[in-house]
């Protein structure tokens, strides 16, 4: 008997397109593909690539339209079933291989354990794939079923065993992978982006367990004379789509997060140098070079080079006595030693630029020490963003040392 109203009617609408996770998985594969091709010998990257590729194939070939097309092209009713089951089994194996290689490497003994675990996973799941095709060849499944094959043939000899086999190996892979990832998340010293990626992965694998639970429940209901096929045709596919999307996000997050963080840091460092670059424009005698299509890293390097070139021109004309007085003034105003040093250099640069000082080189003049000046341009530019602080230090530094001592 099939219920047609109440919560069942609501749940029957919970169908998520197979193409949504396919697009997310495809995007994840596109993001990782350059690294995979460049570092093909890395087993972890190969495992990531295999997982994403297999996941994409599962959702392409498990879509109802593709199932009907496969059956029609091959000319065998329900031939898409063992093919999709094989892809799901291979995907389950790739989950285990990903975690094995992700946590492997390092010491020689660990690499050896990783190789043994890889051989074990590949051999067991390859055997399962062979068994799936053998069972399908022995089964009698003449009526084509596009969306509810698992429940329609739940009691058919050999097909019943095939359905249970792929569900069992899928569930076992989910349980083992989720357990390993959850244990890993709780370890200390993980990178923040990696931890978030693992969290998304764990949610994905737990959601995949809902896929298996819905399938098993619908099949057992058929065995006992009940009709819960909506679990198989609506809830299970939706759980699989959500789980696959979470897995794809979990794979993307560590890579994309680190990439975006580094890009943001580069852009922030370049913007932080803007006050110093603007101040030194009269010294450089030209505008800072800018190329619209240049990468952020190149723009940062060009701005740093522009600033250092200008500082080298200005360095022989800086008032060292003013720098010492400005440093003492900054400390007296409560600045930390590092900030006081940056303030002193900034005050000296501002004074030299504003006064247009061009002191001729003396015969016995010593070469200026530009180590701090050229190395700490970010710190110097940072304090230039606080003109009130610069003004206060300059005002205090302008007072002769004897006057400050008498006043204090």
Automatic annotation (TrEMBL):
Domain named DUF6545: residues: 268-360
Chain ranges passing through the membrane: 12-31, 43-63, 83-100, 120-143, 163-182, 203-223, 235-260
InterPro entries per the UniProt record, alphabetical: DUF6545 (IPR046675), MAB_1171c-like (IPR050039)
Entry annotated with the keyword Membrane: yes
Assigned keywords, A-Z: Membrane, Transmembrane, Transmembrane helix
Signal peptide feature range: none
Pfam families: DUF6545
Protein name per Swiss-Prot or TrEMBL: DUF6545 domain-containing protein
């Amino acid at each position: 008997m099939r219920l047609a109203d109440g919560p069942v009617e609501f749940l029957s609408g919970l169908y998520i397109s197979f193409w949504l996770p396919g697009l997310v998985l495809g995007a994840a594969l596109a993001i990782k593909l350059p690294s995979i091709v460049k570092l093909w010998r890395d087993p972890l990257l190969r495992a990531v690539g295999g997982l994403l590729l297999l996941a994409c194939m599962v959702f392409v070939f498990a879509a109802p339209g593709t199932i009907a097309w496969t059956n029609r092209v091959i000319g065998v009713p329900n031939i898409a079933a063992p093919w999709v089951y094989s892809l799901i089994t291979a995907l389950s194996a790739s989950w285990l291989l990903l975690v094995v290689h992700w946590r492997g490497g390092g010491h020689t003994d660990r690499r050896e354990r990783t190789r043994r675990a890889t051989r074990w996973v590949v051999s067991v799941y390859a055997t399962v794939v062979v068994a799936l095709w053998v069972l399908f060849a022995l089964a009698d499944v003449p009526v084509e079923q596009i969306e509810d094959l698992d429940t329609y043939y739940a009691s058919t000899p050999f097909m019943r065993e095939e359905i249970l086999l792929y569900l069992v190996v899928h569930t076992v892979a989910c349980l083992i992978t989720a357990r390993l990832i959850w244990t890993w998340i709780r370890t200390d010293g993980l990178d923040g982006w990696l931890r978030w990626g693992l969290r998304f992965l764990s949610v994905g694998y737990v959601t995949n367990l809902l896929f298996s639970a819905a399938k098993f429940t619908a099949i057992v209901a058929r065995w006992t004379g009940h009709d819960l096929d909506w679990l198989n045709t609506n809830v299970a596919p939706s759980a699989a789509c959500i789980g696959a999307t979470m897995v794809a996000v979990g794979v993307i997050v560590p890579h994309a997060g680190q990439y975006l963080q580094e890009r943001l840091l580069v852009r922030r460092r370049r913007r932080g140098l803007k006050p110093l670059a603007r101040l030194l424009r009269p010294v450089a005698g030209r505008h800072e070079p800018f190329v619209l299509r240049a990468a952020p890293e190149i723009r940062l390097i060009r701005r740093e080079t522009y600033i250092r070139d200008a500082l080298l021109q200005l360095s022989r004309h800086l008032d060292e006595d003013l720098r010492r007085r400005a440093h003492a003034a900054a400390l007296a105003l409560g600045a930390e030693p590092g900030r006081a040093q940056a303030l002193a250099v900034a005050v000296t640069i501002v004074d030299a630029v504003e006064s247009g000082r061009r002191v001729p080189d003396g015969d016995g003049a010593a070469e200026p020490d530009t180590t701090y000046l050229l190395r700490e341009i970010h710190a110097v530019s940072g304090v230039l963003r606080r003109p009130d602080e610069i003004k206060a230090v300059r005002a205090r530094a302008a007072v002769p040392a004897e006057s400050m001592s008498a006043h204090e």
